[in-house]
């Protein structure tokens, strides 16, 4: 099978299209239709122990029965024509949900849902500030899900005082966000680690900081499947909509990484694994 393999040490031009053996073993085999490109893939590519084939989310056909499925791949492998996914990480995709929508839901949608509901405990009285690029990543889904929960979403502190902040940026921005949070409010942070968070200012302001990592959802098969099904249902109802995603052939994974790094894409970049060139 063909795969986009890391053939050098750094930069988005490290990928080369190559023939590699099909995976085998006890996992679920999926003939891939589309693979997603995420910020996590960029982080893995830069890391010292990157797998030879990146790609953490795919949609395609389960080889055993031909059913359309989507899967998250914590160890990578998605930029390939066939993947082996852990059985607990595979979900069936309803007929009314397109492949592109399924990929947006699986990683970004689950992140948005659990940041808001499971960790953030959003309710209709909340004023929510989304500290991400709202047109891309999980940001546009966070905005839609917060509004569907009855919360008021603001673009900046000039629009109101937030009671719930979703922070997908971290770093220096965190202290600025903490300073504008309403008393008894909370920040849910995900993505880049923040380092240490001083407790004294939180106590003084009666505020809280909570973290989220999607791996905790993947560790709970029932939670993963039920929340994915809930999000698919919201797509079917038209509650969640998505910007148009750019699609690249398998040979252009490096270009997809470059475009995502340079923030020149609005939707989630997708790799059309069926078309190598």
From TrEMBL:
Coiled coil: none annotated. Residues 11-271 form the Enoyl reductase (ER) domain. Keywords: NADP, Oxidoreductase. It comes from the Bacteria. It holds the Pfam family ADH_zinc_N_2. This is NADPH:quinone reductase. It comes from Actinoplanes couchii. The lineage of its organism: Bacteria, Bacillati, Actinomycetota, Actinomycetes, Micromonosporales. The gene is qor_1.
